[in-house]
Amino acid sequence: MAGRNHLFIPGPTNVPHEVLSAMHIPMEDHRSPVFPKLLTPLLQDLKKVFKTETGQAFIFPATGTAGWEVALTNTLNPGDKVLIYRFGQFSHLWAEMAKRLGFDVEIHQETWGKGIPLDKIEARLKEDTQHEIKAVLATHNETATGVTSDIGGVRKALNAANHPALLFVDGVSSIASIDFRMDEWGVDGAISGSQKGFMLPAGGAFLAFSQKALQAAETSTYPRCFLDLKDQVNANKDGYTPYTPNLPLLYGLRKSLDLLLEEGLENVYARHFRLAEGVRKAVAAWGLTQCAQPGFESNTVTAIVVPEGKDAKTVISIAFNKYNISLGAGLSEVAGKVFRIGHVGDMNDVSLLGAIAGVEMALLDSGIDIKPGSGVAAAIEYYRATAK
Ligand SMILES: *Cc1c(COP(=O)(O)O)cnc(C)c1O
User: Fold this and answer.
1) Does the Cβ of 61 fall within 6 Å of ligand 1?
2) Distance CA 124, CA 157 (A)
3) Model confidence pLDDT, tens digit, residues 280-301
4) How many helices and strands in the chain, by DSSP H and E?
5) What predicted TM-score, i.e. pTM, was given to this entire model?
6) Measured from the CB, is residue 69 less than 6 Å from ligand 1?
7) Where are the domains positioned within the chain?
8) Which residues pair with 59 in a beta bridge?
9) What is the second-level CATH architecture of the domain 6-12+265-386?
10) Top-level CATH class of 17-262?
């Protein structure tokens, strides 16, 4: 098919031209005396994106999933109790990983469409007077349902209970696109990945750990090797890595950090809010609903519920086959019930309007009764009124 495939999934996201070009490099010796000039500033600038001065940033040649494992296996001991609220496919997978790694996982089921219930988590932590819970696992942005949780609120709950548990946050689809403040929120382990807000291909787990977490790594007896933080600390202090780095990704990250910091993180967050808000106006104009309940709407991905009796998979396959647009599928519990529009990373008004128009065509072709142009009209009015 002539023309581009239009990628509107919440990861991997579109890679800007400048980043693609920056990755087109000959390989070089990662043990040369100049390699630290690349790596050390990357680790420093990552800290700016995580908003941490006291923590330490890490890059593993892996994905977000490995980031979950780094946090668990470097700081805890076998059999330790961890607490997690599960309300979508990613929080589910993190809980399953913790089980498979032999931790004692306390799972609290929440409605898909809601996020972490702050009152309940505070009550549960207060009840744990023996401090059996060693870590709280919080999914900041549940990509499966388009739900954002209040991580500052989780920190408040821990403080209100005077609870010493480590706070680990999955920010894979929020960091570098939705407000995230590691130090201010007392996050002990922040987990992100290259292929969402960082606008890179998959293959980089970008992490930051607090001093408290790094101290826990000193005494943790959990076996680990490839994902060992201490090996990274030792090699990184001289600007090197414990094994071969993903060199093109590092050059791409240099460019993507430059783009993010040049735009300014606050502007990046505001852009994502505004883009998301236009999509939300379109959804309302179609007469459809979001999977996210009010107050939990994500600025990086919107999950849209199709009417009863319709299959979201039809919408997605028509969008792809007929109009060359990639939309996100509903996962697991919401498979067939929702489709998702990713609006994270390298995105602007007109690109996203293409998605909204394409979705309208696919909805109409699927026999879903919407008024042609209604979503586009709602979004263009909002974008026009709010463009600078
Ligand atoms: C994409 C994503 C992940 C990690 O996925 P990988 O495929 O391992 O990079 C984890 N959590 C959330 C919330 C995600 O969106």
Assistant:
1) no
2) 9
3) 999 999 999 999 999 999 999 9
4) 13, 14
5) 0.98
6) no
7) 6-12+265-386, 17-262
8) 206
9) Alpha-Beta Complex (3.90)
10) alpha beta
